[in-house]
Gluconate transporter (Mucilaginibacter ginsenosidivorax), 438 residues
Amino acid sequence: MVLAIILICIILLILLVSWGKVNPFVAFLIVAIAAGLLLGIPINKLMASIQKGMGDIMGKLLIIICLGAMLGKLVAVSGAAQKIAEVLVKAVGEKHIQWALVTAGFIIGIPLFYGIGFVLMVPLIFSVVYKYKLPAVYIGLPMLASLSVTHGFLPPHPSPSALVAMFHANMATTFIYGLMIAIPAIIIAGPLFAKFLKKIHSEPLATFRADELPAEKLPGALNSFFTALLPVILLMLSALFPYLGIKNVVAVKVIAFLGDPSIVMLIALVVATFTLGIKQGKKMNVLAGNYTDAVKDIALILLIIAGSGALSEVLTTSGASDQIADQLKTLNMPPLLLGWVIAAIIRVSLGSATVAGLTAAGILVKLVTKSHVDANLMVLSIGAGSLAFSHVNDSGFWLFKEYFNISIKDTIRSWSLMETLVSLTGLAGVLIINQFVK
């Protein structure tokens, strides 16, 4: 019954947005209310649940997305993105620019949380697309596939890191296995799959489209790369700090504060305001106008993400995820495959990869202990399942759709299938590795 209600709500959401042309934020609110009533949430608590879901997801993403949009706008209008694109293409040639972006996305994606990586990489993708007149989805999706793979498979990302702790797995072993799986997953779901997407028409978000500047007005290559990648550098330094053996309590607290993604983005924007703004002769009122325009352009994206958080919270509060999990416990299949299936079904139902991974792990903790299955591979199996078929109840789906400005149909046949290919390739990799480590 629960699965039927969730399916009806998802279909309703798709119909409202695609057929009824209802604003996606309004559609999410309607569907979240309907789902809450159908799933038995008391009417006097329903709006509190919706508000909590919106608040939770906005609390995590609002600062990051807004500051990321401002930084992306500045990187675009200053000519830094143009300079980065020119350097990359000169290094590998226009023919291989897609692979250069994939490699950059993978390296950057290891220390960088997915949401930050997305808003930082999109301006770079679009600068290449505009300058060399290449198909946006064809060029951009492989880089985002590499970000998705690191998010689902590799510590120190939240879900795999949490699963390592829950299953008492080995962080280093999980990372090594994850790398072995990540590379083929990126290749298959990225450049190979993207060959079938060249005809998707896309007019990417205008905020990251800047007029091409003459060479003498461009910032230097070092300045451009350093400023654009400063958030990555700061997060990498923060991640390495615990391994330096420094025990000073004050230093640990200060680094933890400075390493918070929101603080990192703020520091990066302040630095960029000087290096790509004031240093390049721009006045503060002009820069302020650029930042205002950037936030205006992503306002609808923020509302849509808030709406997806509302629906996800309603489904969680109602106990839908627990009921689905209980029904799946009776399935008779190998533990690693069961972990993938449970995570995948919860992911499709609730939208959040992190929620899917943690929920599936909670169900299977005792099973892993009793069956003596490899804990490192179970982390990766659940991680792969948590990426399966991202669709209209996932904030990542809407980020991709709105930034690239394509239809729901094209988003499903590009983004959703890419995520599914990553998931299936991950499962295959887990099962193959399991044959050699038994």
About this structure: The two ends are 39 Å apart (CA to CA). The longest helix spans residues 43-77. The chain has a mean pLDDT of 86. Residues 170 and 183 are 20 Å apart (CA to CA).
